[in-house]
Structures are given as C-alpha cells and as structure tokens.
Amino acid sequence: MLLQIKIYLISILYFLGALYMVLFPPRNFELSGAKIRTTRSTGDNLKLKKYVDHKTLSYVLDGFRRRDPEVVKVVHLAPQTFENRSILAVELRSDRHTRKPGILIVGALNPMAWASPNAILELSEKLLYDAKYQTPFFNDYDWYLVPMGNPDGIEFTHNIRSRRPLNSVDWTQNVSVRAETRPSEWHKNVDLEKEQKDRRCFGTNINRNFAYHWQDDVHKTPTRCCQYYPGQKPFSTAEAQAVRKYVDKMGDFINLAIHLHASFIPKKEYILYPWRYSLRTPSNYRTLQDIGEYAARQARLPDGRLYEVHQSSNDERVAGTLIDYISGVVGIDLVFLIKPYHEMFPNFTDTSDLGVYVKKSISTVLSLVRAWRSSTKQNTLSFFGRDVEF
Ligand SMILES: *[C@@H]1O[C@H](CO)[C@@H](O)[C@H](O)[C@H]1NC(C)=O
Ligand SMILES: *[C@@H]1O[C@H](CO)[C@@H](O)[C@H](O)[C@H]1NC(C)=O
Ligand SMILES: *[C@@H]1O[C@H](CO)[C@@H](O)[C@H](O)[C@H]1NC(C)=O
C-alpha cells in the first residue's frame, strides 16, 4: 500500500516535471542563434567588390535582415542628414532574450575612408555566416554597427572622383573652377548653416562636432572653409546628433567601442585611445595600452610591421571627437580608434587597395576583441577595483 502511494507520487512528480519542460522550455533549447542559421565558409574573397555607397549599404543590410530576421535588426538613426539620408545602424545579436557584452563600431565619419563601410559589411557577413567567426565572435557578443557615419560626404566624394584634383584651399576659394575640378581631400559633410550668408564654403567636420571639450584644441574657430571646421556649436551637424542619440541610448549595453577610421599616410598605421583633446592620461590607460599592444601583435600588418599603439593626443591634439565623447560622456571604458592606411580618392575600379584595407580592418577589430578577452579573468573584467562581470 505504502509502496503504491510512493510510486503514484513519483509518477505525478515526473509528469509535472515533463509538463513544466513542455510549457517552459529552456531558452537555449528553443532559440540559439547558432542553431537556427546555416553556416558556411565565406572564404577570403570580398563579397562586395566596389566601394559601397549609401544605396548599396541600405540594400545589403536589408538583405541580411530579410535572410535572418531573428538576429539582424536595422535601425534608421534620426535626424536625417542635410541631404535627407538616414544613417543606418545594424544590430547583430545571436540571442534576443539576453544581452551579451556589446561591441560598437562606427565607420566612415570621415568621407575619405571609402572602404570603411565595406569593412564593416564584410565583417557582418563573416559574423553571420562563417562558422569560423560565429564562435566565439558572434555567439559571445552583441554587435552594434554603424557602417557609414557620413553618407552625404561619401556621396559627394564619390560623385566628384573623376575630376582633376586641386589643392583643397584653392578649390574652396575659386568657385569658377569647381565644375571641372575636385578638392584634393575632403574631411567634412556637405551641410550649410541656417544663417550662412557666404555660401561658397560648406561642410562641417563631424569628428570635431561632438560635445566633449569642443574646440579645446584651437585658439580661434577655424574658418568655414577649413577642412577641420567644427561647426557653429557642438552637435550642430545632423550626423553627430544621430550618432550621439544612438550611443547614448545603447551606452549601457556597450563594453567596447571602436571608431574605424583611416590613416592617409603610407606606413603610418595606428591603434589609438582617448584622450584626443588633452595630454592628460585616462584613468585606465594602462589597460587600454595593454589591450592595444596585444591586438597589434595579433594583427601584424602584411609587411610585418606592427600598428603603433598610444594615446591619440601624443601625435596631435584634436577636440570634439567621437571617441572622447564616448569615453568622457557616455562613460564606456574600452574605446579605440583604428587607423589602417587608406589612400584618398583611390582608383575606383581597382579593388586591390579596397581588399587590403578591409582585411586589415577586420583582423584589427577581431584582435581587439581577442585582446579584451585575454585581459579578462574568468569572465570578469576588473577596472580599478570595480569588477564588471559577463
Ligand atoms: C530634404 O527634405 C526637406 C523637407 O522635405 C526639403 O525641404 C529639402 O529640400 C530636402 N533636401 C534635399 C537636399 O533633398
Ligand atoms: C580661378 O581659377 C581660374 C582658372 O584656373 C583662374 O583663371 C582664376 O584667376 C582663378 N580665380 C581666383 C580668384 O583665384
Ligand atoms: C584604375 O585601375 C584600372 C585597373 O587596374 C586601370 O585600368 C586604370 O587605368 C586605373 N585608373 C587610374 C586613373 O589610374
């Protein structure tokens, strides 16, 4: 009799247990990013064989989203740019239900870095579809990517690329030659300010327009024509406003932020970190330097050189930049500026330079992630007594 009751009780318990599993399946079982997607090797070849413009970017991101709506989200940042384009962000998250350590990458704030949207798209492709990159890079992190921070500038420079180059200063002074020439370099967007009387000069340097020690690097405001014109006031550009809004909103989820920039001098390639506006060192500069050096060793350049790693202001003080804003205002601890070499106005049809920049950028980003992993002990990151666990 007693034995029978025991058996009944045990069967009921088993039944309840089974019922619970059916009603509330373990989440990993139900949805794991890695399982629901097809994997393949994406190989070494570029998927995109042309410098990406805003239309192509939008098209490619839409393709990712349609193929894998569970893990890809495309966000249109507001406000729109002067020429009414939306800056696009793409979020790659292997599991919608939990937040993993977040990595932010912003590319092409500077329109001379034509290949930087390509690099971010090729990286996305690998994270999503290549088994070699899914583990650990995709499955262990959430990726927040802004491939093209300055779509108007990219459009402008693409359109004038085949004209005869003229020194940028002469180009801005002399309106009569503009139809058949182009400035030798262009580091701005293309906006005009509301009460601007002299319409000859246009464009603001977005990476001088962020509100952290804005204009601290100059004694007087650079002229409107200057390639480093920082805007009438901080956040006067739509681009800086849009990126700021996004970064402010996502700040709590981002642990590592990277600005993918470019160096325009051959054989001068850098991994840099804040501050840019001041020679003062950030409180965690030792960690930043160590991670940077580790990444530089991992991402040795094709000719055997190493990236130079140091605080950005050691070369030149630059104020109002994205990385200083992210570090100083948003409060993210790990912030880097990557500058692989990129020619200005490269040959549009010859993609060998494009491929070199893209490969360098991807390997540098992933090396930074690896360096960050290796600097953590047992999933814990220690910042001066404060342990951030993930
Ligand atoms: C952008 O949109 C506004 C409002 O619709 C319009 O007035 C303006 O002319 C547009 N600008 C461009 C460059 O298309
Ligand atoms: C502008 O360029 C044209 C053609 O090179 C030249 O003839 C003219 O003198 C220039 N004007 C100024 C103000 O420099
Ligand atoms: C660009 O590269 C292509 C292919 O290599 C070459 O045929 C063309 O002459 C180059 N154009 C310029 C302007 O150098």
TrEMBL record:
> Does the keyword ATP-binding feature in the UniProt annotation?
no
Q: Name one GO biological process term.
A: proteolysis
Organism encoding this protein: Spodoptera littoralis (Egyptian cotton leafworm)
Tell me the GO molecular function terms. metallocarboxypeptidase activity; zinc ion binding
* Regions crossing the membrane: 7-24
Keyword terms: Membrane, Transmembrane, Transmembrane helix
SUPFAM superfamilies (UniProt xref): Zn-dependent exopeptidases
Gene3D superfamilies from the UniProt entry: Zn peptidases
Would the keyword DNA-binding turn up in this protein's UniProt record?
no
Q: Which cofactor does it need?
A: Zn(2+)
What protein is this chain from?
A: Peptidase M14 domain-containing protein
